[in-house]
Amino acid sequence: MPKIALTDRFVAHAKAQGLPQLDYFDEAIIGLALRVSSRGRKTWTFHYTSPSDGKRARLTLGTYPATTLANARGLATEARGAVEAGTDPRTRTNGAMTMASLVQSYVEKHVAALRSATEVERRIRKNIVPVIGDVRLADFHRRDVNRCVDPILKRGSPIEAARAFEDLRAMLRWAVSRGDLDHNPIDGMKKPATSKPRERVLTDNEIKELWARLPTALAKTPTCQRIIKLCLITAQRVGEVTGMRGAELDFRHALWSLPGSRTKNGHPHAVPLSPAAIGIIKEALADAGDGPFVFPSDVSASGAVPSRSISKTLGLARGRLGLTPFTPHDLRRTALTGMAKLGVAPIVIGHVANHRTTTKAGMTLSVYVQHAYEKEKREALELWADRLQGIIAGGAQVVSMGRGKR
How many Å apart are CA 211 and CA 321, to the nearest integer? Predict the structure, then answer.
């Protein structure tokens, strides 16, 4: 069990060195360790001798990258303080459950089973534990909600603030259901108002400029170039594109089949692939190696490119692209809007987007209409791909949508 001075760079690239799992102990914080599995999963743990029974114990603090090195050190320091005070940090502090211990229980027993587990844990560890982790559950007050939410609003992140509120409310309701609380003290409170939904749609000229500038603006990240193009061609969510697996692809039938575990609404989704999309995917596969992902991560040997890294890369390349700022989700909106302009029926667009609020709205569509619109989806996506081809070509020389500078 090696002991080293952990750094952000080391943590990002740490491997299990051929073992089933390997613990890297931090020289800075006694007892803190980064556990790396052979599959690349990284978990922060705190090792100590329990004051209650004198036995060695291990406390899970979170997973990386949802829990950063700095956050893990803060949680380990808090746990060390509890041990030195004669209490076991796993469940109780001074005989009473704290918000931090409730978080630990909630993450392990409930959040871990959720499809969005990593993101929920990240938000809780970032926005709740550092602010009110030491508050006893019995002393929790509605004003403690504002202590968590107000700083997020102050830094200009209303959506993050609303989600933090929802995370806290869900956790407290879970505590009530288990009997840790008699009632939810924040029932009746309103979550912070979020900003107006985005309406950004790229114009035809912007699409043409984007396509032309990607090879130079993102010259060092061909993977990001391909993901951006596929978001625009397929109209799918960036997280679904970045997590694309070779096993999901059927080139013979030109189909990309997403399992329910990979979609936002939990329902399987079939995406017909246009020749343009297939060309880009095959380029990516040629560079991907033998792993399961079409877009493997440069950081984790067993993971895909994180979807948030695409937004970050776009932000950093804003000046080089020379366009009004946009997000990967704006590309999806642009594609769906483009199909609507081409006369594609709303019900078909709903199926392309996997929006069940459209495809299964009302008794007729949810019960009596079981048609999957696969033929119509393919026609819509190929029509949109042809339209993109025309936009990029500018009515002159035909430009291949599947190949570009690398």
Answer: 10
pTM of the model: 0.56
Q: Is the dihedral of CA 29, 30, 31, 35 positive or negative?
A: positive
Q: What are the structural domain ranges in the chain?
A: 3-136, 204-393
Give the CA distances from residue 191 to residues 132, 196, 268, 365, 371, in Å, rounded to whole numbers and listed in that order. Answer: 18, 15, 31, 33, 39
CATH architecture of 204-393: Orthogonal Bundle (1.10)
Residue 18 region, left (φ>0) first, then alpha (ψ -120 to 50), else beta? left
* 69, 6 contact by CB (below 8 A): yes
Q: Mind listing the pLDDT tens digit for each residue in 40-99?
A: 889 899 999 988 778 888 888 888 887 889 888 888 888 888 788 787 776 554 446 788
Structural contact between residues 320 and 196, judged by C-beta atoms closer than 8 angstroms: no
- Please give the angle made by the CA atoms of 367, 371 and 374, to the nearest 5 degrees: 145
What are the backbone dihedrals phi and psi of residue 191, each rounded to the nearest 5 degrees, phi first?
Answer: -70, 155
Measure the CA–CA gap between 334 and 203, rounded to whole angstroms. 8
Q: Is the peptide bond before 65 cis (omega within 30 degrees of 0)?
A: yes
Residues with Cβ within 8 Å of residue 385, at least 6 apart in sequence:
233, 274, 275, 276, 277, 401
Superfamily of structural domain 3-136: Integrase, DNA-binding domain (3.30.160.390)
